[in-house]
TrEMBL record:
Residues 333-342 have a biased composition (Low complexity). It comes from Kribbella italica. Residues 104-320 form the ABC transmembrane type-1 domain. This is Peptide/nickel transport system permease protein. GO terms for biological process: transmembrane transport.
């Protein structure tokens, strides 16, 4: 178990290091050379010496343009490790880390709540579709969730904005909270935050729970036909025990993996949703930095999204052995693979237990 955890930690740190390195070289490969463009802009403004121009560029990109590439690279990596990602070009009075720290809680709230709600609804609907797979309910829900899964989130965001903020004016059209409340841990502020987050969360849930439902239905249907389920039925076990110990846990295994991978998609989808709802999260600032060619802020947002996905995958890798202990025990997997099949022996489910 310890070696399993160490391997996952080492792999995650290696991926983060590769992402930081890629972000360093991407700045230089971008068309127009952002550092050269900033240097030319500062020269045109006038009033700055050559040393001051190099200091401004160094403050923005955390590198010294005149230094050798290897020295720039080491300084950039060391700065990223210490949390120094430079300063936004459009707002030199603050730092990229400060902008991200201000925007990150809003994105985490919307993504986390949307993911939990869509996961719970999707798993419940998918389980019901699998349990009643030949009924009209299953056929109707399959059409509905397939249609919603194919609709882009930004189209749902536009529809919600038009109907609920323009036609009926039920919800606000933008912002994270009202201007008439005082930020802090007080009732009016909390209510205003939840009120402003309803539409971004709804747009994300509507377009994402269908994928969970279809995945859960396919996983549960495949498990229902497994030999260990038929063996449990032949032993006369109750439907409730078979559902909990055999079907439920084994159907959830692939869904847990998808839950980690979906975090990256949810962060990516938040870019469009936060932009349309003018919600001040990471996606909102990322789109702004792209439009304003603010490369330092852009790379900071990109690095944060990538690292968050890696950390989430790491957490799921560490939780996965709790669902199936054989994953962290190669010897147990080898013994199970080498063991000959015995028709008289009870067949154990992958993640469940024999009742």
């Amino acid at each position: 178990m310890v070696s399993y955890i160490l391997k996952r930690l080492a792999m995650s740190l290696l991926i983060i290091y590769i992402v930081i390195s890629l972000s360093f070289f991407m700045i230089r490969l971008m068309p127009g050379s952002p550092m050269a463009a900033l240097e030319a802009q500062l020269r045109m403004q006038g009033g700055l010496s050559e040393v001051e121009i190099q200091q401004r560029i160094s403050a923005v990109y955390s590198v010294t343009p005149d230094a050798p590439v290897w020295e720039q690279y080491l300084r950039y990596v060391w700065g990223a490790v210490r949390g120094d990602l430079g300063r936004p070009i459009t707002n030199p009075g603050t730092t990229v880390v400060a902008v991200i720290a201000e925007a990150l809680p809003w994105t985490i709230m919307v993504v986390a709540v949307s993911l939990i709600i869509s996961f719970v609804i999707g798993i419940a609907v998918g389980a019901m579709m699998a349990a009643f797979q030949n009924s009209r309910f299953s056929q109707a829900m399959t059409f509905v969730v397939s249609f919603l899964s194919a609709v882009p989130s930004y189209l749902v965001a536009i529809a919600l904005l038009y109907v609920l903020t323009s036609v009926y004016q039920v919800f606000p059209s933008g912002g994270a909270y009202g201007i008439d409340v005082t930020p802090g841990f007080n009732g009016p502020y909390v209510i205003s935050v939840l009120y402003h987050a309803i539409l971004p969360i709804a747009a994300s849930v509507i377009t994402s729970f269908g994928g969970w439902a279809l995945g859960m239905k396919g996983s549960a249907v495949s498990v229902l036909g497994a030999e260990y389920v038929r063996a449990a039925e032949s032993r006369g076990l109750s439907d409730r025990r078979i559902t909990q110990s055999y079907v439920g846990r084994n159907s959830m295994l692939p869904m847990v993996t998808q839950l980690a991978l979906s975090v990256g998609f949810m962060f990516g989808g938040s870019v469009f949703i936060e932009t349309y709802f003018q919600y001040p999260g990471i996606g909102f600032y990322m789109i702004q930095s792209v439009g304003q060619r603010d490369y330092s802020l852009m790379m900071g947002c990109f690095l944060l999204i990538t690292v968050s996905v890696i950390i989430t995958n790491l957490l799921v890798d560490l939780l996965y052995p709790l669902v199936d202990p054989r994953i962290a025990n190669p010897a147990a997997r080898a013994r199970a693979a080498d063991q000959p099949a015995d028709p008289d022996q009870e067949v154990l489910p992958a993640g469940g237990s024999m009742a």
